[in-house]
Amino acid sequence: MRPEKNRLTAKTLDGAQIAATIKDELKQEILRLKSCGVTPGLAAVLVGRNPASEIYVRNKVKACEALGLYSEKIELAASTSSAELLDVIRQLNARDTIDGILVQLPLPPQIDVKKVLLAVDPLKDVDGFHPVNVGNMVSGRPGMVPCTPAGIIQILERSQVPIAGCRAVVIGRSDTVGKPLALLLLHRNATITICHSRTRDLPSVAREADILVAAIGKPALVTGDFIKPGAVVIDVGINRLTQPEEVRAVFHDVDSALAQLRAKGSVLVGDVQPEDVREQAGAYTPVPGGVGPLTIAMLMVNTVRAARERRGTALHP
Ligand code: NAD
Predict the structure, then answer these.
(1) Domain spanning 146-292: which CATH class is it, in words?
(2) Distance 171 CA to ligand 1 centre (A)
(3) What pTM was computed for the model?
């Protein structure tokens, strides 16, 4: 049930601002590398014409340009075979000007995703999806950490949210977000619960959380009854609503959401009900402007780091 009062007390965790700070800090490191003759380079591989993927890759390339990194977008037909994609990756592995290789997911169904992720040189694996990097992360060794989970840790740490000793509940167990994030929180001494589509009585498990993370991909699934008053809520979901009935099902203030739909043609919503979270949480990440900008910032961090580490100790400060 919704609380009667509309208190709107939660603090917004401004992901865009935190991402801007991280990119500013990175500029010094990029200048230092350039003074040693190295311009970090990122190759983004896009297969097919998924509109969301096209936007993500465009934003990643733009971020590289803004920081003075070299970037290359490699667009392949939707009919590309696993063998053809593996060949492209082999060529990128061999090129010295490319420090980071990003294969935008999802890939078309005919492509063997696991084989493709295994083919990326672990030193250039800026998404942190190669089993070598996954293993390093599990065992707490240095390595590439997936961008979205790494960005969420940055939001928490830079907002002085205490992690050690807290109860953290992560809803979603994907290899790209939920699982790695749970590990990163565990390594920072949180007590972790990972929930998923088969979890029983999800709201009551979620209500135990001091830090609640929703990485589900279901619009506003997390409502007020999932949130312990004062909890920190991290909303990873990005869901685009295009139909009036979808908007009506999600928002309490239906009129203003419908006005936004009419004006823009779609309404973005996370996995957390945006009005409930403002009333119940202590702090929360908005959608848009929360986790999303950090994902790109951490990709830049990983690319610069790959450029430095691939060349060994010579470029370490
Ligand atoms: P995914 O589909 O791989 O995983 C979703 C997870 O949610 C699964 O583990 C599943 O068990 C769980 N789940 C599904 N329905 C559930 C339910 N009813 N109750 C409880 N758990 C349920 O998705 P993903 O790649 O982890 O992405 C999740 C969301 O985060 C998506 O909206 C995606 O677009 C978004 N995302 C955002 C960023 C960003 O930068 N902001 C980055 C990656 C993903």
Answers:
(1) alpha beta
(2) 8
(3) 0.95
